[in-house]
Amino acid sequence: MHATDTELNPHKKWPREDCSRVPLWVYTDKDNYRSELERIFYGPFWHFVGIDTEVPNTGDFKRATIGERTVLMTRTETGEISVLQNNCAHRGVELCQAKFGHQKEIMCPYHQWTYDLKGELMGVPFRRGIKGKGGFPADFDMKEHGLRVLKVENINGAVFASFDHSVPPMEEYLGDENYFYLKRIFNGRKVKVLGYQRQRIKGDWKLYMENIKDPYHASLLHVFLISFGLYRIDQKGVTITDERTRSHNVFASVRNTGEATGTMEMKSYRPDYTLNDMRLVKAAPEYNDEITIQIQTIFPDLVLQQQDNSLQLRYVIPMGPNEFELLWTYFGYEDDDEETTMRRLRQANLTGPSGFVSVDDTEVLEYSCAGIQANPGNTAVLELGGRGAAPPEDGNMVTEGPIRGFYEYYRTIMYGDQD
Ligand code: FES
Ligand SMILES: [Fe+2]
User: Contact, 307 vs 230, CB < 8 A?
Assistant: First the structure.
């Protein structure tokens, strides 16, 4: 049985006009999840598919995922990147299963329809039948049966794609400040991938994006961050939110070398802790500013992080309302010296599935999932820093404003709320 209109428009059940309350069913409801796939993952939004140096030569491809669909990021004969839906135009078969590969043309394993690297249909077996019998109708037009081509933008090596060609250019999509911070890392130096990690986490995909937009927990949950001064809520830093959507944001801050304040409230603060190898938390400045942590969320599903010298992308792949996959891509630059690469790899131990910091998040997200699954009628409270989504006037990080901003935009997309 299908839901009624009122049920399909569940924002009526959001407890407040503002987003200081989030009903927990948004993390568990299957219809809501299907609607997210259509509206957000296949709608006019950008999704990260890869680094262009992952496909250096004509014919190289990488299989990536957007929502529940797989796509192929391919280097074409003209040197451009194309992103094609990995889905045969004949009867819907997934064309490639390999995560990476090289091919001059894309051939479906089922009936061997063959496409070029831009997705155009080039060959159909038995098109004219056998000895004049069978075959496709005379007016069968190969041009009408190519692969679905996604819109692509390559920001100095970071490749984004969208199923919906009406998506605005990245600069407009992100707004000036967020675009600036994306290009602070993707700054024109050729990017080199250093490695990947993947993990599955029980919980709705939005919980992960909330977690990254939440400096509140970072100062309280993570023993490692606060005890070694890598991040504390009292440190010098700013919260930046884009004006158009209020759903992309950056926390940029400088490592705290002085005394910590507010430590009475930070039960995880352990000033006596030390490491046998302190190189793990020793950084070498490398950009023309003081920023030691930049954490950027790009709506809907990407995180770009500089944690000292560790550079990484985290990309969220939803797998139903109660599970997601997190794909980590660690990178540096092709002209890095060996010591710099080692430093990046060493510091990468802070993050990832077993990272000294990230492991806390994985654990607590699974607790979130358990609590939410059992109580979908309850409501989350988001009032730190007020009830609106505007960034704090002094840019401080003591706020849940970016999470409220995410949900204001989310409601507009999902249910047509107007500002
Ligand atoms: S499904 Fe791909 S060729 Fe038939
Ligand atoms: Fe965290």
Answer: yes
Does residue 127 line the site of ligand 1, with CB under 6 A?
no
Rg (CA), the chain: 23
Question: In the chain, which stretches have pLDDT less than 70?
Answer: 1-12, 229, 232-234, 256-269, 395, 417-419
User: Please, is 68 exposed, middle or buried when counting C-beta atoms within 10 Å of its C-beta (0-12, 13-18, 19+)?
Assistant: middle
- Three state DSSP letters for 161-214: EECCCCCCCHHHHHCHHHHHHHHHHCCCCCEEEEEEEEEEEECCHHHHHHHHCC
Question: Cα dist. 100→8, 63, 316, 411 in Å?
Answer: 39, 6, 19, 36
Determine whether the shortest distance from the Cβ of 115 to ligand 1 is under 6 A: no
Total-model pTM: 0.93
Q: Is 310 exposed, middle or buried (0-12, 13-18, 19+ CB in 10 A)?
A: buried
Q: How many CA atoms lie within 13 A of 396 on its CB side?
A: 10
Q: d(Cα 20, Cα 388) in Å, to the nearest integer?
A: 7
Query: How confident is the model over 196-245, as pLDDT tens digits?
Result: 999 999 999 999 999 999 988 887 888 887 777 677 666 778 888 999 99
Dist. CA 235–CA 252, nearest whole Å: 10
The ligand that comes nearest to the alpha carbon of residue 111 is 1
Question: Rounded to an integer, what distance in angstroms lies between the CA atom of residue 149 and that of residue 119?
Answer: 7
Tokens of 234: 């009292």
Nearest to 171 by CA among 338, 46, 277: 46
Q: Is the CB of 113 under 6 A from ligand 1?
A: yes
